[in-house]
Amino acid sequence: MAAITNRHLFVLLGRLALAAVFVTAALPKIEDPVAFASSVDAFRVINSGLSGWVALCLPWLELVLGIGILLPVIRRASGALIGLLLLLFIALHLSAWARGLDISCGCFGSETGEATADYRWLILRNLLLLGAVLLVLKQDRRNNNEAPSS
Fold first, then answer.
1. pLDDT score for 141
2. How far apart are CA 134 and CA 69, in angstroms?
3. How far apart are alpha carbons 14 and 78 in whole angstroms?
4. Are 29 and 106 in contact, with CB atoms under 8 Å apart?
5. What is the CA radius of gyration of the chain?
6. What is the rounded distance in angstroms from the CA atom of residue 68 to the CA atom of residue 29?
């Protein structure tokens, strides 16, 4: 059995953090899609009808990807999709910030006590999560390159 290196431990912690964040973000939105639709609508980038569909589908996608980042068979695809979602979230936060919208992001459902978004923190958090995704994907690619051929 190969020894666990600090790098492997760091990558595992990255995977666990991504899984925790995406599952934790998904569950309250699944529980209350109407409140989440309101948060989606507040960004003013899609119409209200489409906001409802996003509110129904996005949390389930987040849940599947959060679990998928832990499953070797779909880890790479989950990581890539999480990365794309994080880039989308960063773009949405930048857009809302640039347009002067003072809204709650709805990232973890209807957050109590958070009437407005701290865009600097939201963007930094998503950039850190994106860094974790890149670390996980890089390690998975490295593992595939090191795998013995049959």
1. 80
2. 12
3. 13
4. yes
5. 17
6. 18
Query: Any residues with CB less than 8 A from the CB of 140 and at least 6 apart, and which?
Result: 75, 76, 79
Classify 127 as helix, strand or coil. helix
| Length, in residues, of the chain | 150
Query: In the chain, what are the domain boundaries?
Result: 6-140
Q: What's the token pair of residue 118?
A: 């701290």
What pTM was estimated for this model as a whole? 0.86
- Please tell me the least confidently modeled range out of 15-24, 41-50, 74-83, 104-113: 104-113
Mean pLDDT value of segment 89-115: 82
Contact status, residue 66 vs residue 22, Cβ threshold 8 Å: yes
Structure tokens at 7: 């790098």
Structure tokens at 87: 């880039």
Does the CA dihedral 86-88-94-100 come out positive or negative? negative
Distance CA(107)–CA(105), nearest Å, equals: 5
Please list the alpha-helical segments (H only) found in the chain: 6-31, 33-42, 48-68, 75-98, 119-146
80 vs 142, residue with greater confidence? 80
Q: What is the 3-state secondary structure (H, E, C) of 46-57?
A: CCHHHHHHHHHH
How far is Cα 50 from Cα 55, in angstroms, rounded to an integer?
A: 9
